[in-house]
Design brief:
- The chain is of the alpha/beta class.
- Helices cover 51% and strands 8% of the residues.
- The strands form 2 sheets. A 5-stranded parallel beta sheet has the order 2-3-4-1-5, with helices on one face. The protein has a 4-stranded mixed beta sheet with strand order 6-7-8-9.
- Strand 7 and strand 8 form a beta hairpin.
- The protein is globular.
């Protein structure tokens, strides 16, 4: 009978367990010094090695000749456990044996000595499935079992276990296995099994496994079922993926409002019998990567991408503002929940959502309004749209400008009336030091820096002591690209000019504005008078406070 690859390649010693060195090192030490605990608790996500380590530990506590903390595998005890003939090692699935009667049987058996081995080992898998009565029946036995009994509990949902159970066990948390470790193991297995596995395909399989070794090996066996070379196309065809490039093309179509490409993409998925939910999850995952690029300085540390994929992702991220990315994520999340509830209308939900993602004006949610405000700010800052004068600005304008700004109804012409000319007033003498023909100096145009709070957040990560002064300040950009930071008092100016604070501000501005800020392009000054915020500033501040 064929044996699954994940069973065939299951580790037999602690040294073969991948990605859990923080656990296997402790277990090897306990085996070498015969310092076993009476109860162990292995918790972690699926496929990370909990049951494997439990079986190795069961052999190790009974091994006659351990080697560097590992079971030898050649003694009579190890061979009996490997063949399944050892009656003193009992493995129980709590999902199907979760009643109090099953625990009572264990409680009645532990008083007897092992029949052939040194210790009797009880491995209870998915222990969180036990009932409350079963947990209560296990408490006393778990706290003070006989010296020849060892309990090994395994669970994927630690939060469901009572605190009284956790406190009686030596707890080990199994981590998700890193992508590089998974790739190395898959490459080793493929070479030993004679499977042609491409490097990019191995990385894709490791990414799909989400940190689980069993899932990664099972996917490898699935893709290599026809004994052909395992390529990226083979993985996508076997698993039902749409492909990273197709998902990126979909995002580009959303940005370009190419409705034909979007509808054709959904039609292609439906006709190929692929699951729209899988495509939707890939799309949501891509938006997560875009959000990481838009918000962090070390995006490569949080993304598992090839150089080609990283370059394409940066190109897409440059076309989207952070507000619009968050708005799209909200739409994708709501649509995914709707697809899971209404299986028959997945296509309709997907198409409607993609159309809404193309046009923010079709949605009145706060996320959509914030995205539209951000786009309007960009257009105003680039001069594509002239700023609208507010009513207060019109009232404060001179009378001549007010007449131009505020349209009035035309009155019928009246007959001219002759009036005696009043004697002209004498001209005021020019002030000293100012020539009579001198013109007023030109005012510099300052535009509020909308991403100032993002700059403050970045500076605060390395220097939290000056965040309060930066939050109270206002930042503006000039037509030349300089940035002016205005504070309310000289003390705040002194605090911001000390140490490496200006350099930190320039570094944060360079990251947010995506251009290099030189030392002379940043000016720190005290505001002569409070700068009045525009209407759009007030709207943004109100939305941020909400």
């Amino acid at each position: 009978m064929h044996q699954a690859l994940y069973r065939k390649w299951r580790p037999q010693v602690f040294d073969d367990v991948c990605g859990q060195e923080h656990i296997t090192s402790i277990l090897r030490y306990e085996v070498e010094h015969r310092a076993f605990s009476h109860a162990y608790l292995f918790c972690g996500s699926r496929g990370t090695g909990k049951t494997t380590c439990a079986k190795i530990l069961a052999k190790a506590v009974n091994c006659e000749h351990p080697v560097n903390g590992n079971p030898c595998g050649t003694c009579a005890s190890c061979q009996a456990i490997d063949s399944g003939a050892a009656t003193d090692v009992l493995e129980m699935d709590a999902a199907s044996n979760n009643g109090v009667d099953n625990i009572r049987e264990i409680r009645d058996e532990v008083i007897y000595s092992p029949s052939s081995l040194r210790c009797r080992v009880y491995i209870i898998d998915e222990v969180h499935m036990l009932s409350t009565q079963a947990f209560n029946a296990l408490l006393k036995t778990l706290e003070e079992p006989p010296e020849h009994v060892v309990f090994i509990l395994a669970t994927t949902e630690l939060q469901k276990l009572p605190a009284t159970i956790i406190s009686r066990c030596q707890r080990f948390d199994f981590r998700r296995i890193s992508t590089d470790v998974l790739i190395g193991r898959l490459t080793h297995i493929a070479k030993a099994e004679g499977i042609a596995l491409e490097a990019d395909a191995a990385r894709l399989l490791a990414r799909l496994a989400q940190g689980g070794m069993r899932d990664a090996i099972s996917l490898l066996e699935l893709c290599a079922g026809s004994r052909r070379s395992v390529t990226v196309e083979t993985v996508e065809e076997s698993v039902g993926l749409t492909g990273r490039e197709a998902v990126m093309e979909t995002v580009n179509a959303i940005v370009a409002r190419d409705y034909d490409l979007l509808f054709s993409r959904i039609d292609e998925i439906v006709r190929s019998s692929k699951d729209i939910e899988v495509f939707w999850q890939d799309l949501l995952s891509l938006y997560r990567d875009i959000l990481v690029v838009k918000t962090t300085e070390r995006a490569t540390a949080y993304l598992d991408l090839t150089d080609r994929e990283a370059e394409a992702l940066l190109s897409i991220a440059s076309k989207l503002r952070k507000e619009r990315v968050l708005y799209h994520c909200k739409l994708l999340e709501d649509a995914l929940f709707a697809m899971q509830k209404a299986n028959s209308v997945k296509r309709t939900v997907a198409e409607m959502t993609l159309v809404r993602m193309c046009d923010d004006t079709l949605d009145t949610s706060p996320e959509a309004l914030l995205s539209r405000v951000a786009q309007l700010e960009d257009r105003v800052s680039m001069g594509a749209v002239a700023p609208v004068q507010t009513a207060s600005a019109v009232r404060e304008a001179p009378a001549a400008e007010r007449e131009k700004a505020v349209p009035t109804r035309e009155k019928p012409a009246e007959p001219p009336v002759k009036v005696k000319e009043a004697p002209s007033a004498p001209k005021a003498a020019p002030e000293k030091g100012r020539p009579e023909s001198a013109e007023a100096p030109a005012k510099r145009v300052l535009r509020p820096l909308r991403t100032w709070m993002e700059v403050v957040e970045r500076v605060g990560r390395g220097d939290p002591t000056r965040v309060g002064f930066l939050k109270a300040a206002r930042a503006y950009t000039t037509e030349e690209g300089d940035v002016i930071v205005r504070v309310d008092n000289p003390f705040a100016l002194t605090m911001l000019q000390q140490g490496d604070c200006p350099a930190r501000i320039r570094a944060a501005l360079s990251a947010v504005l995506q251009r290099q800020m030189d030392e002379q392009q940043l000016r720190l000054e005290v505001a002569g008078q409070a700068t009045k915020a525009s209407v759009i500033d007030e709207i943004l501040e109100a939305s941020e406070n909400d």
